[in-house]
Design a protein that fits this description.
9 helices; 32% helix; 383 residues; globular; seven-stranded mixed beta sheet; alpha/beta
Length: 383
């Protein structure tokens, strides 16, 4: 067995998502399991090079996890020929310029979404990467969640018949930051810093809908800033200039209609923080992060509307749990493994910068729809 060291420049790992999901639960988890076995006698050993703006924070992370390499000089890291991959989990506004540098340096690129602040920039990144001949990918973690993988199993097995509609509910109450600390960084609520729930979540909804049900062909959205005043990490008040809730209707190729509500100003009254109800002619399902429940046509109750008497059916008890049938790994780690296999074993991989550009496009058109108060077609994009 040959061990091949893979040096990965990880930019933005001092942030919540970059730290917890990508560094700890993906790259360090791969190291804990002994590396990634490619099946040809080679084991990939990921060696992270931590990159960021705050040297003290990088040094603290490196010391905590026993890592040797960190730097505040991105240019120097990208100039290092021993670095194979550039990963970006920075704030969105800083991402495009850094990825351009990485592509120019000939590094393979893996990035959080959105890949850029606008469609033109996202498409240009995809074109530059294609012309450079590097491997590239965008994080699309939701399709690797156990609940949605079970949902995909149902779709592939023909459980639904003709799929009619998808209803999604996502969100939770993010504290304002005055009397309780906010669970999300303050830049998420400032448009000028690349914040907003449409920019954050519509790219997720694009690939979930595209992968499971069909390409999005139109969008109609209504946005709101329900909480106009928040408090930042230093306890200082600021005006929230970005949308914290979005209510979207998406038409899909093939006729399915999807309706997804996204909000950071909603209190949770569901089993999981995100749930999708899928209704088809032969059956329905409700999928969340981990669980998935179904109701077949043959077991569907026959409700009769009568507001004068209490409900006679315990409707939630009439759904059946879909079994796991397998071991589910962390979704971020699972996609990291696929990308590493793509880079070093040429395994197939289609969650690339062009796929990321589709997410940016949907967010951009969703904001335009909300601003203009109309339904907008979503054209196909290509290099």
């Amino acid at each position: 067995m040959t061990r091949k060291t893979v040096r990965i420049a990880m930019n933005g790992v001092t942030g919540r998502m970059g730290h917890r999901q990508h560094l700890v639960r993906s790259i360090l988890a791969l190291r804990e399991q002994g590396g990634l076995d490619l099946g040809d006698g080679t084991v990939l050993w990921p060696e992270p090079v931590l990159v960021g703006r705050r040297e003290d924070a990088l040094e603290a992370l490196a010391e905590k996890y026993g890592l040797e390499h960190f730097s505040t000089d991105l240019d120097a890291v990208l100039a290092d020929p021993s670095v194979d991959i550039y990963f970006d989990a920075q704030v969105t506004s800083a991402r495009e310029a850094a990825i351009r540098k990485a592509i120019a340096a000939g590094k393979h690129v893996y990035t959080e979404k959105p890949s850029a602040t606008g469609l033109d920039g996202a498409l240009e990144l995809a074109r530059l990467a294609h012309e450079k001949g590097i491997k590239h990918g965008v994080v699309q973690d939701k399709i690797f969640l156990p609940g949605l993988m079970k949902l995909k199993r149902l779709i592939d097995g023909g459980f639904f018949g003709r799929i009619l509609s998808v209803r999604g509910e996502f969100g939770y109450w993010v504290f304002e930051g005055d009397w309780q600390e906010a669970q999300r960084p303050s830049w998420n609520y400032r448009t000028e810093d690349g914040g907003g729930i449409v920019v954050d979540m519509f790219p997720h909804w694009e690939y979930v809908l595209h992968e499971l049900f069909g390409r999005v062909t139109s969008v109609q959205a209504l946005t709101a800033t329900h909480i106009p005043r928040r408090w930042d990490e230093n306890g200082k008040p600021y005006d929230a200039t970005a949308d914290d809730a979005a209510y979207g209707i998406f038409e899909l190729d093939g006729g399915t209609i999807a309706q997804i509500n996204s909000s950071w100003a909603v209190r949770v009254n569901r089993d999981e923080l995100v749930e999708f109800q899928v209704d088809g002619t032969e059956g329905s399902a409700v999928a969340g992060l981990r669980k998935c429940r179904v109701q077949h046509r043959s077991a569907t109750p026959k409700p009769v509307w009568n507001p004068d008497i209490p409900a006679t059916e315990a409707f939630r008890d009439q759904w059946q749990e879909v079994p796991d049938n397998t071991e589910f790994d962390n979704g971020f780690k699972a996609q990291w493994e696929l990308f590493l296999r793509h880079v070093f074993a040429d395994a197939p991989y289609h969650w690339d910068l062009l796929a990321g550009a589709r997410g940016v496009q949907l967010a951009e058109l969703g904001l335009k729809s909300a601003a203009e108060g109309r339904r907008i077609d979503v054209p196909e994009i290509a290099l």
